[in-house]
Design brief:
Blueprint (H helix, E strand, L loop, with lengths): L1 E4 L2 E4 L10 H5 L2 E9 L2 E2 L2 H14 L8 H13 L6 E8 L16 E7 L6 H6 L1 E5 L20 H12 L5 E4 L5 E4 L3 E6 L2 E5 L9 H12 L3 E5 L3 H5 L3 E6 L3 E8 L2 E2 L7 H16 L2 E2 L7
Parallel strand pairs: 7-8, 7-14, 11-12
Antiparallel strand pairs: 1-2, 1-6, 3-4, 3-5, 4-16, 5-6, 8-9, 10-11, 10-13, 13-14, 14-15
Bound molecules: 3-[O-phosphonopyridoxyl]--amino-benzoic acid.
Length: about 290
């Protein structure tokens, strides 16, 4: 396995960064999680665009054009022998002195890891997941906007720990007003009376690329798609529920806080959208040139 750091490739063992990097010292940086399916990088433009938007808000000037960044990601995939993979693209503030001041950091560091990721078992996808809401609220938008995909994931990790501590795999996070925001690394959807419903952006969560993709697929299937403020009650009385994310794909949810959702099995629309999403991942994407067959 080869890891990209600032234009050079290193073996996994030799891929190292400074302990003075502000990404490590302060979580000062941004990242993307991207998937390669069938030797094609899925939604690469969307991920690169979001990376640059996150960087813009934290005033991190990425020393690459978007085209150069796209080329670097494709090259990093090419250097690794996986037809299906997970890409972790990280841009840190870089090496600086102790103290918060980002201006003391000489230049951003760009890291691209290409590896494998499995979040949940095939059993979880087949039977559906049981999740709970947790006490940890999603970050206040006015403090640290969840739309920034920053290296500060403690808010999500704290929520994930609560779920795991209680014996569940995933947590629903509410916003400061007690309305549904998202899960720790996934967005949330319900189906109610033949409409697909998901929290609207002002509820404070990461604007997921899988979320948008699934909404487009639903529109294509003639489903009505609604973005609005959702309470826990709305979740409990839903006909279907599922989560979306780059790493997890589409995950059916069958129980929330002990309440059975719909029939207690993955719903019809959930399964259809999950299948449509899987098909799209096999079809679309930026191809990775290979000289030899992998
Ligand atoms: N919410 C949060 C907080 C996330 O971190 C999503 C929603 C889904 O967004 P996308 O754009 O992926 O549909 C995410 C993304 C990991 C991992 O390593 C996490 C994500 C993506 C890839 C890998 O756990 N979360």
């Amino acid at each position: 396995m080869k890891v990209y750091i600032n234009g050079q490739f290193f073996s996994k063992e030799d891929a190292k960064v400074s302990v003075y990097d502000h990404g490590l010292l302060y979580g000062d940086g941004v990242f993307e999680g991207i998937r390669v399916y069938h030797n094609k990088v899925f939604k690469l433009k969307e991920h690169v665009d979001r990376l640059y938007e996150s960087a813009q808000t934290i005033m991190l000037k990425i020393p690459f054009s978007k085209e150069e960044m796209t080329a670097a990601v494709v090259e990093a995939v090419r250097q690794n022998p996986y037809e299906d993979a997970y890409i972790r693209l990280v841009v840190t503030r870089g090496v600086g002195s102790l103290g918060l001041d980002p201006n003391k950091c000489a230049k951003p560091q760009i890291i691209i890891i290409v590896d494998k990721i499995t979040l949940y078992s095939s059993e979880t996808y087949r039977r559906g997941m049981e999740i709970i809401t947790v006490a940890t609220r999603r970050n206040l938008q006015e403090a640290l906007n969840p739309r920034i995909k920053s290296l500060n994931y403690l808010n999500n990790i704290m929520a994930k720990m609560e779920a795991i501590h209680a014996g569940f795999e995933e947590a629903i996070m509410l916003n400061q007003n007690g309305f549904v925001a998202e899960c720790t690394g996934d967005n949330i959807f319900i189906v109610k009376e033949e409409s697909l419903v998901t929290p609207s952006l002002e509820n404070g969560f990461l604007d997921g690329i899988t979320r948008r993709t699934v909404m487009d697929l639903a529109v294509g299937k003639g489903l009505r798609v609604v973005e609005k403020t959702l309470s826990r009650h709305d979740l409990y009385v839903a006909d279907e529920c599922f989560l979306t994310g780059t790493a997890a794909g589409v995950v059916p949810v069958v129980k929330i806080d002990g309440r059975t959702i719909g029939s207690g099995e993955p719903g019809k629309h959930t399964l259809e959208l999950s299948r449509a999403y899987d098909q799209l991942t096999q079809k679309e994407g930026v191809p990775v040139p290979r000289t030899a067959k992998v």
